[in-house]
Amino acid sequence: MEEQILFNEGGVLVTHTKLSYENKFYQLSSIKSVLFIKEPFGVGGFLLNIVVAIAGAYGILTFSAIGLFLGLIGLAIGGINVKNMYRDIKDPVYIVCVDLHSGETIYIKKRNSDFAKRLTDVLNSALRLY
Description:
The chain is of the alpha+beta class. It is built from 3 helices and 7 strands.
């Protein structure tokens, strides 16, 4: 008898008896709980990178050779980091935390909230049926 597939998307497979993620298989009976969260945004790092970018711009405006050199480096590093962190504001990472009875926790991270919500619902439904 072939197992019925409840969820098969994004490298995650859920059947009535098991969860498969990253080529590892976990029995549903070994799952203690399933939780859906949004990854917290690091405001401190974001502000620090803004300060580095502003300091870099100020260094460029000093019109000295060392100020120009250090300013370009600071502006580049701070600016690139701010741009990458802005992506986390616009498109946050959602995490499905699967706690196992063994004490291990599996973190399934995706930028798609619909994927994470559907996976959480399927796992919780499968656990109730199991």
